[in-house]
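Lab notebook, bench 4. We co-purified these components, and the gel suggests they stay together. Before we commit to crystallization screens, I want a quick structural picture of the whole thing.
Request: model the full complex, all chains together.
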Amino acid sequence: MNHEPPERAAVAALAEEFLVSLREWIAIPSIGADPAHHGDVARSAHWLADALRADGWPEVAVWDEGPALPAVYACWPAEDPAAPTVLVYGHHDVQPVDPLEAWEHPPFAGVVVGEELIGRGASDDKGQVAMHLLGVRAHLAATGATAPAVTLKFFVEGEEESGSPHLADLLAGHTADLACDLVVFTDTPLYARDAPTVNTGQRGVLGAEVVFTGGTSDVHSGRVGGGIPNPATAIARLVAALHDADGRVQLPGFYADVVEPTAVERADYAALPFDEADWLAATAGGARAVAGEKGWSTLERVWTRPTAEVNGISGGYTGPGLKTIVPRDASVKLSFRLVPDQQPARIASALREFVAAHTPEGVTAEVRLRGDGVPPYAVDVTHPANVALYDAVQQAFDQPVRYSRTGGSGPAAVLHDVLGVPVVYLGATLPDDRIHAPNERVVLPLLLRGAEAAARLWRSLPERLS
Amino acid sequence: MNHEPPERAAVAALAEEFLVSLREWIAIPSIGADPAHHGDVARSAHWLADALRADGWPEVAVWDEGPALPAVYACWPAEDPAAPTVLVYGHHDVQPVDPLEAWEHPPFAGVVVGEELIGRGASDDKGQVAMHLLGVRAHLAATGATAPAVTLKFFVEGEEESGSPHLADLLAGHTADLACDLVVFTDTPLYARDAPTVNTGQRGVLGAEVVFTGGTSDVHSGRVGGGIPNPATAIARLVAALHDADGRVQLPGFYADVVEPTAVERADYAALPFDEADWLAATAGGARAVAGEKGWSTLERVWTRPTAEVNGISGGYTGPGLKTIVPRDASVKLSFRLVPDQQPARIASALREFVAAHTPEGVTAEVRLRGDGVPPYAVDVTHPANVALYDAVQQAFDQPVRYSRTGGSGPAAVLHDVLGVPVVYLGATLPDDRIHAPNERVVLPLLLRGAEAAARLWRSLPERLS
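Here is the predicted assembly.
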């Protein structure tokens, strides 16, 4: 009879303490979007710093220098000075909880229902950061060492839910502290409970608003209708021109830099369980059909293909009833999801060019970019660190593991660009954890598997990266 | 040396009394859209009824039977029972006055500045109804008779600014009272002070809202963007498909019933003074270019061509900043200006057909019509009554008179359809009278010319219609 692997046993032994501790952290409403809760964001940072110190981390700091909300940094050097250094990235700020009445349990009570822990941040991202604290403890317990096999650093920011506006500056200001050989990014889910996956990428995003203005005021459509340009019609024609009949985005050069996923990844996506009706109901907000770029499956479309989506459109009279006017102006909010190696700045230029080409005579156009955008990121799946991570996840989950990606956006590319090292992804939550929504939950046994995977990874990495 | 024509002299003699009386009427804030002013609408009706009685009208009634706001009816039979009967249509309800702070004089004070009378309703439509009271007095004074040469009826409704929702019912309930050979419709302007015109038509209108719904909730565009239909994109594509590159509306059969203006009318439009820059600034709300259906001038476009205009469009997130969602739904408010012989019901069917053909898979469409619409109307310019009216206006204004039309909509077709008689237009206001806007005014000398034209018309009609 086989013994249980030491990492699994160590995790099991620490599981109860882990849950008590995570519930304590969830009780702190660290809502970054709400200035009234910025004190709680600081409390959350200090809670994490104290927890790290209690775990024996020799170097722990709360970075609260402004303008960024407090971030937590910790370092635990390996005994072997030649061992690689790994930086774990996560965040401790959480989303707002409205509508409060839709929660079945108070969002900061950390109620446990069966195998699930309910609460804001349980999945995104306190649960996964706590999973890493547990992973380090299990690694030490499993190896019997007093220091990890790799030099471990934690960097847990407080502004991810606000779009990480100061992250690049914060990283640039602490390059010596943060110097590492690898980033393990922990803010992405598994594909499904019965289909664990290793995430290999996130799409980027560029947001913009286009405003078309005609005259100086709304005008009565009886008096002038049919005789002047209608900015709302013009904005509709701009939007209609964004895609061709095959669903391909028509910005000039939009696909020039697109790198397609590898054959291994596409084969994995095709092998994942996918029920279209389930996906539409559970993931796609009750949408009634799939749609998108011709020639790609739904998972490929949402993980690996760039998009142009209308997030909002408005112009003219939008109240009850009718008001017969030709509107003065109209606008559309667009977001472009980007994939490697598209760059937000190049897409912004292409958008300006496209808008100029679709602005009719008598209409003036304004393109307002929403920041600089977030670049996309994809892992080199053949990188030894990714292979090691893949193996650790497969061992921890006792199941075949496939590759997946995430359609949303995160700061992986920023970490890669500023720190100059590869980023790999280790996450153990689920896409239906209701993050950003009422009744957020996390499935506790999955977090324990994730902690085991992390513990196995720390043990294996020195050899794999040598 | 010629004597002044007797109608002109009679109008001049009554001008001072006319102004006193009109200012009194304007002082009553008969704002039909505001229930708080419905008592004032009734007061306005009774003021008019009293004024008619004071002028000697033998039969005067306020129709206040609900649900319509009070209307005024009056009849003054001709001495000759074989004389034609003419019904004058106007309205005594007025538009709201917001924004009040934009008025240079109180809207109900009836301040006179030079040749202009300032006030809500001065032009639309109390001024023109009062002009007709003056016209009848002048007619009697000029002819020296104790009864008019034609049997005159007045019908002055109280709901025109609300879209005359009960007009057809009101007319149908009083067909014996309202029986006539001709309607003189008095709620349209001259083309310009130095270019008097006889109006020969109004466009109709059909309003509708189209709602496209995808799923049951907004969804995060990172998670599903590129994989499901976007209702806002779909509504934009619907709107973009409404017109072809030549600006022609693409509803099936949209132009099937369109009757083009006569050669005489088109020649008149071409001969009217038209400065594009002035029109854009003064009439078109500061629009920067003309635009519209290929092959037609601006005046033809706004007077004689049917349109499809977006009055409002909305969907998804329209607040400050960005929210990266695929919206659950999107909608567009459309109005179609119609020209003879387009019928609102047929256009409504064509719209439903068009929307069905442009609803993508996975999106459900709802078409909400805004009532039954208002049918268009055009005068047969060769009708003897119109020729008589044209001659009367030319004599009264001492200038060449041309034909014009009105791009907006009114109940002329309803009067025509229910009463079964021709409708002709007699108005003496101006397009830049700021009706429906702050600082509404009327140019008093033009109203006097209009009253003279009416007086001349009543004298000439028995012979012209015999």
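The mean pLDDT of chain B is 96. Worth comparing against the SEC data before the next meeting. The first strand of chain B starts at residue 59 and ends at 63.
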